[in-house]
């Protein structure tokens, strides 16, 4: 299957078909984290699309509960959401980064 929302699209030679989550993602420029699909390759692909202007939506994210110690860790020492947050922080420090990771109250 297609793990990243914005990629759940195909072309059959005549028509373009897109899953509802792809339409939402393309319209809002947000890829939601799906914990069932989480893997190193999923994280890497989320980062790839974040660099292309797609925010990473994390339903229920409470930044107050994020341990600030992760920001002192190296990128390869963390994984999952922590890896995305460390990269976001690094990008923000470098150039007021465009990767945005936020609680995303997703609706239709």
Describe this structure in words.
This protein is α/β, with parallel strands linked by helices and 108 residues long. It has a domain at 29-102. It has helices at 20-28, 40-50, 81-95; strands at residues 9-11, 16-18, 30-32, 55-57, 101-102. The strands form two sheets. A three-stranded parallel sheet has the order 3-4-5. Strands 1-2 form a two-stranded antiparallel ribbon. It is elongated and about 50 Å long. The mean pLDDT is 82. InterPro entries: MGDG_epimerase (IPR053354).
User: What number is the mean pLDDT?
Assistant: 82
What is the helix fraction of residues, given as a range? 25-40%
* Class computed from helices, strands and strand pairing: alpha/beta
Give start-end ranges of low-pLDDT stretches.
none
How are the strands of the largest sheet arranged? 3-4-5
Number of helices: 3
Query: Outline, from the CA principal axes?
Result: elongated
What is the number of beta strands?
Answer: 5
Biggest β-sheet strands, sense, barrel: 3 strands, parallel
Radius of gyration: 15 Å
H-E string:
EEHEHEHE
Beta-strand share of residues: 5-15%
Distance between the termini: 21 Å
InterPro entries: MGDG_epimerase (IPR053354)
